[in-house]
């Protein structure tokens, strides 16, 4: 547990000494810990050694249980930002922008899996799993804040009389997420130091396979190392030896494209240009990338882009459409049906996550009432945006929801369960964590809900 006392960093010793790299990593996170709200407290009679500056981040979806597992999903695309003046306490991280209802549906798959596990008699019998699911908005500050909170618990005070075992008990035994590589890397550097298993469903950066740097990181999706090699062979198969390349300016895009370019060189493929863009960069950067594509002679483009950047790029290109292009896509966008509205994407090819079927999931997602939606800020936003009404009374010109709204009539990614791809990876990740906990607290016939264990034991029992 990482806390401050009398303006110094107090580190409670782990069971084994960390190597030099890990100690360097700790020093890098000192400033991050200040951002997440931990502050020194004056020595008082009540022996409060450390306290939080702010209230803990409340989960967007939650349920109590004997053991709580965490979850992080990029339901929103942006985090609210402000220009820090350094003469007042900065605002806490908060998501903003439009909601991805598809990612909300994916987050609720974790809910569904936990409920399904709780109803089973052969997995964790007599044990009730709970969950705390957060919207990370795909941002590093929010992901780090939530990761530290899941590691430390939500108690606002820490007393010097508290034992290390009590501190360890506050941590979640494992968590699902994040879906993007860059936030996952930041989380994995923290969680790996204290051994909390992190199982990501969609962070594909090959860099995360380095167990020396990320000893507690696992995933249910293949590394981009294999995708990059397969894309190079795909391009070679069709005889395309003069291509362009564009990527997300992130860990996902930069590492994935680096692997592809190396594989392409070995296949004898020549690359005319390699450009990058990230959705928060200036518009002029996007326009420059689009102009490079328009002026190039390569008619085949390999796009190692996240869906957000791909959408912006296609919208920019559509303003002055280039000659017909053959798109080769990475898994992040090639399976997204929303891009079919762009004629230039006709015939795009790539490798996608296999489709799957999860019995009972659709009924679970559709079993949502206005009263249930009000219990979660995410579900409230989903309901109000889907039906253009307000659950809390008329506001901002929107009518009050009257109960006649029919969620089954909606046609959007939330209700569409015909192609469960990332959702199935979340389902598997949740079950993997449940099996790991089962291996620690259960024998052949029964489980001990009062068992005390550390996240390291969960990690070593199954992963």
What's the short version?
The chain has helices at 20-28, 30-35, 101-118, 140-152, 164-169, 181-194, 224-237, 251-266, 283-295, 307-319, 331-334, 361-366, 370-373, 377-387, 422-441, 455-462, and strands spanning 2-5, 8-11, 38-40, 48-52, 61-63, 67-73, 76-79, 95-99, 129-135, 157-159, 175-176, 198-200, 217-219, 242-248, 270-277, 300-304, 326-329, 349-350, 389-390, 399-400.
Q: How are the strands ordered across the major sheet?
A: 5-9-6-11-12-13
What is the strand tally?
20
Query: Distance between the terminal alpha carbons, to the nearest Å?
Result: 23 Å
Instruction: Determine the fraction of residues in helical runs and give it as a percent range.
Output: 25-40%
Mean pLDDT: 87
Specify Rg, calculated over alpha carbons: 23 Å
Structural class: alpha/beta
**Distinct helical segment count:** 16
Estimate the strand proportion. Answer: 15-25%
Largest sheet: 6 strands, mixed
Shape: globular
Low-confidence parts, pLDDT < 50 over ≥5 residues?
1-36, 38-46
Please explain how this structure is put together.
The protein has 463 residues and is an alpha/beta fold. Helix content is 38%, strand content 18%. Strands 5-9-6-11-12-13 form a six-stranded mixed beta sheet, sandwiched between helices. Helix 8 links the parallel strand 14 and strand 15 (270-277). The longest helix is centred in the C-terminal third of the chain and has 20 residues, at 422-441.
Topology (elements, then pairings):
Elements (H helix, E strand, L loop, with lengths): L1 E4 L2 E4 L8 H9 L1 H6 L2 E3 L7 E5 L8 E3 L3 E7 L2 E4 L15 E5 L1 H18 L10 E7 L4 H13 L4 E3 L4 H6 L5 E2 L4 H14 L3 E3 L16 E3 L4 H14 L4 E7 L2 H16 L3 E8 L5 H13 L4 E5 L2 H13 L6 E4 L1 H4 L14 E2 L10 H6 L3 H4 L3 H11 L1 E2 L8 E2 L21 H20 L13 H8 L1
Parallel strand pairs: 6-9, 6-11, 11-12, 12-13, 14-15, 14-16, 16-17, 17-18, 19-20
Antiparallel strand pairs: 1-2, 3-4, 4-10, 5-9, 7-8
